[in-house]
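Incident review: delayed structure delivery

Summary: a single-chain prediction request sat in the queue longer than the usual turnaround. Root cause was a stuck worker, restarted by the on-call engineer. No data loss occurred. The affected request and its eventual output are reproduced below so the record is complete for anyone auditing the incident later.

Affected input:
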Amino acid sequence: MRHRSQVTTHIVFIAGLALMLLGIGFLLGTMTGVSRLSVLWSFLFVIIGAFCAGLAIKRNKRTVYLFFAAFLILIGIFLFLSTLKIIPITLAQGWPLISVFSGLALLPAGLRHYGGFRYKYLIPSLAFVILGCALLVFSFKIVSFSFKRFVVNWWPLLILLGGLILILLSISSRSGDRDEVP
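Output delivered after worker restart:
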């Protein structure tokens, strides 16, 4: 009986992958004025991310696969929306989103590994998201000064924040990481 459910799961996964490829083919056929190669690259990230998600599910408690699955799917969706000009951000302008995506991808990995949110994953995740958002402020030129000028003037703040993150990690590891985040 167990073997039958594994075969069914594999068939569903292969069918889903085939439908994704078929959808990509039809989508590329209907697009005009858009770089088909860029769309293909974005879907390649999504497909590799789906494959990593399948590996994460198949190999129980393999959080590294789940991290890469979420990370690659987020990058693929961003590239797809950017290529179609749905979001008017180029990769050259939105590169700090890689840090944000890394932080967001840590959340499901930690949730899967521990069965809930734990400080061990939550603090680095928030640090990556905050770092990415701070870099986006400079990338989009929301502030009138450059990142270099910010670092030259405010470098002690960066050391302070690094120390705060290390203290929070230390406190969470001393408590045995038994407490869940509400």
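Verification: The helical segments are 2-30, 36-58, 63-83, 91-94, 97-114, 119-139, 147-174.
Action items: add queue-age alerting; document worker restart procedure.
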